[in-house]
Amino acid sequence: MEREHMFVQGEIITIGNELTSGRTLDVNAWYAAGRLTASGLRVTRITSVGDDYPSVSRVLTSAMEASSFVIVTGGLGSTEDDLTNEIVSRTLDRPLCLHKEMLETIKRHAKMQGVEMSSSLEKMAWVPDGSKMLSPEGKACGFSLVENEVRFYFLPGVPEQMRYLIDRMVIPELQSLYGRLPVTMCRTLKVYGVSEPHIAEVFKDLDKRTSKAVLGFYPHFPENHITVSLTAEDARNTARELDRIEKRIREKLGTAVFATGSSSMAEVVGNIFTVKGLTVSVAESCTGGLVGHLLTSVSGSSRYFLGGVVSYSNQVKMELLGVQAGTLEKCGAVSNETAREMAEGVRKRLHSDVGIAVSGIAGPEGGSKEKPVGTVHMALASAEKTIATGYRFWGNRQHIKLNSATMALDWMRRYANGDPLLPGI
Amino acid sequence: MEREHMFVQGEIITIGNELTSGRTLDVNAWYAAGRLTASGLRVTRITSVGDDYPSVSRVLTSAMEASSFVIVTGGLGSTEDDLTNEIVSRTLDRPLCLHKEMLETIKRHAKMQGVEMSSSLEKMAWVPDGSKMLSPEGKACGFSLVENEVRFYFLPGVPEQMRYLIDRMVIPELQSLYGRLPVTMCRTLKVYGVSEPHIAEVFKDLDKRTSKAVLGFYPHFPENHITVSLTAEDARNTARELDRIEKRIREKLGTAVFATGSSSMAEVVGNIFTVKGLTVSVAESCTGGLVGHLLTSVSGSSRYFLGGVVSYSNQVKMELLGVQAGTLEKCGAVSNETAREMAEGVRKRLHSDVGIAVSGIAGPEGGSKEKPVGTVHMALASAEKTIATGYRFWGNRQHIKLNSATMALDWMRRYANGDPLLPGI
Questions:
Q1: Residues of chain B positioned with their CB less than 8 A from the CB of A292
Q2: Is B284 close to A286, i.e. CB distance below 8 A?
Q3: Who among A116, A288, A295 is closest to B197 (CB)?
Q4: What is the chain B residue with the closest CA to A14?
Q5: Mean pLDDT for chain A?
Q6: Residue A274, Ramachandran bin (φ over 0: left; ψ between -120 and 50: alpha; else beta)
Q7: ipTM strictly over 0.85?
Q8: I need a labelling partner for A82 at 20 to 30 A (CA). Which of A261, A266, B251, B273 fits?
C-alpha cells in the first residue's frame, strides 16, 4: 500500500440530465480523468448526476469527506436548467455574490460574439461567496473555492471550454499546490494501415520487456493510437525509457507509425511538403472534398495546397479534369485508369508538383459484384510518373470516405518520404 | 415532488481502474442509462470507481440507501484484478458459494471457444450467497441479488455482453416487476444562426406554459439543439403535447429551426434540392472542400451535387472559375465581388442550377484591420440573379471553417425554401 500514499486523491463530478438519461456520452469525465492521471494525481471516483438539488448536493457533500480536490463540470451556463451555482451556494451555505471581474469577462465575450448582454448571461457571474474566477485570457469561465480544505473546481460542461480550463488552470494549480508529484509520462504513437490483431501481437512481444510501462491501445478510426505510460520519480530516466520503448515499437511497425504526440496526419504531410518545397492539388470523387478539407485544417496549408476539383459527376471529370469519355466507358469511374487521368488532369490544370486522385464507391448504394461498396481507386501523378492502385475499405459511408481521404494523405506522406505505398487489392 | 414518484429510481455503478484513470471512455454507463430511461425507469446517479475494496464497498452501501435497483458492471472476469464478487460478498456479508449452474455454463462456454478450464475461470462461478444467475442461452454470465429490497444486477464489463444482458434480462425483469411504467418521449429541434442567450430568453417564456415538459439546451457547434422531454402515462397525449410545444418553439425561432429529430443540415438541404429537382455546385476557398464533404456525407447526394472547385490559390480562382484579375486586385479574394464571380463561374462551368461560393480568412494568420480573421464572404448564383454578403465568424480555424460551411448549406436551404438569408455584416 505504500505506493498509494504517493498520490493526491480527488474525484470528478459531472452534472446534467443528459448524462443520467444516457442522451450524451460523458467525454468530460474521461478527459479530466486522463489528464489528471497523466499529471500524477489520482482519481478515485467519477459521479454523474442530474441537474437537481438533492442529487448534486448529496454528491458534493460526500466528495468533501474523501477527497483533496473535486472537479465539477456542467450546469454553469445561462439557461434555466443550469443550477450548479445555486446548488453549491445552498449546500455549502455561501450566498451567491456578483463577481465583477467575471461579469466583465462575460460582457467582453458577449460583445466579441455579437451577442446582446442579458439577465440570463449575468446570472453566470453570480457565484458562491469566496469563489475565485478561473479564466485565462477570458476564453472560458469557471470558478474555484476551498471548503474544509477541499479544493473544488467548477467548470463549464462544453467540452472545449472544460478541456481548456483543465489544461491551463486546474492541473498547473494542483501541481504547484501539491509539489513534486510522481512523474507519469505518456507517449502516443499514431499508426495507419496496420490491423488491430497485428498490433496486439506486437504488444505481446513487448510486454515481456517493458515491465513497468503500461501499454494502451486506442482505435481512432481509421488510425490506431498506441500509448506508453510510465510512472517514476525521475523525469529524465522516464523519458529515456520511453525513448527505448518507442524505438522498439517503431522497429516492429516501421513506416506505419506516422506521428508521435498530437500531430495529425494532415500536419505530418504539411511539414514534409513544406520542407521539400512541393505543391499538391487534389481531384476528388467519392471523398467529395474531404481530402481538401483535411489538408486545409492545417494553418499555413496554402504554402503547399493549391486547390482541387470535386468531380462528383462524370461530366465534371471530363470537362474540368480532361478524363477521356472512352476511359469512363471502358473502365468505369472507379478504376485505376480514371484515377490516373484525374490525377494527371488536376496536376496539369492547377500547375502543382503532385496531383492526387480518389474515385470510389462510398455506398450504401452503387456497389456491384466486381466493384462492391468500399472499392476505392487512387492515383498520384508527379513529373516522373503516375502510380495507381485500388483498395477495398470496410464500413459505412462515413468510414469509407474517411479511410479513403486518410489513405490519400498517407500516399502524399509516403511519396514525399520515398517510402513504399500500402499494398492495394 | 409528485412527479418524482411516478418513477422507479435506480443507479449505475461501473467498476474499473481503466475508467477512473481515463484510459477508457465509459460507454457501458451511457448505454445502460439510455436503455433504462427509454424504458420509463429513471437513473439518478452514475458512479465509476476503481477495482478496490474501499471504493466499491462505499458506493454499494450508498446506493442501497437511495435506489430501488442498481446496475453494476465490471470486475466479474477471470483475471487477478476482477474483485467484484469478493467485494460484494464482504460488503453484504454473504459468503461466496459455488453456483453449479453457472459453473456448467462457464465450462460449456470455454469448450466452445477451445479454452481449457482453469481455476481462474472457476473463480467466476463463486458468487455471493443467494445470487441468481443471469444468462439467457449461456451467452454471457452475470448475477442478481436482492438486499434490503434493493435489486442488484452484476454484469460483465465487456460492452457486448453487458448490452446483451441489459436488453435481454435486466430491462424485461424490471418492467415486469414494476408494472406499467410511464412513457418518456423526447423531441429534438435543431437550430442554426440563433445565439444561446436568445434561446435562453425563448425558454424563459416557454417555461411558464410548459409546466410538465423538461426543456434542454445543447450546443453542437455551430448548431444549437433544443430537446423537449415529457413523461406521462399515455403515449398519444404525450405526443400531442410535444407537437404543441414544438409549434410554440417554431413560432418563436422561425426559420432558424432547420430540423426535427436526427436529420443533419446536409440531409435537410438534400431533401429540398431533391424535391425541387435542383442541382448545385460549390466554389470553396477557406472551407477547402468542407462544403462538398458535408453535402456528400448524405447517401444519394449525386442526384443534386455535381461537384466543385477548391480554389485555394488565386490562380485557381482565375483559371478554373474565371474570376477577373482586376477583381482580385481591386477588392481582394475575400470580398462580395470575388465571391460573386466564383459562384457564377462554378455554376456556369459545372452547368448547375445553383452555384455557391465561400471565400474567407480562417486564420490564425492572414487577418487585417479591415478584414480580421473570421471574415467570410459568400455568394449564391442562380439563373435569376447572384446574391452576396459577408459574415464575421468567431473562433479558431476549425470553428470558422465549420461555421462557414454550415452557413453555405443554410443558404442553400433558405434559397430553395424561399426564406430570407441570415443577415451579414
A1: 284, 288-290, 292, 310, 312
A2: no
A3: A116
A4: B46
A5: 91
A6: alpha
A7: no
A8: B251
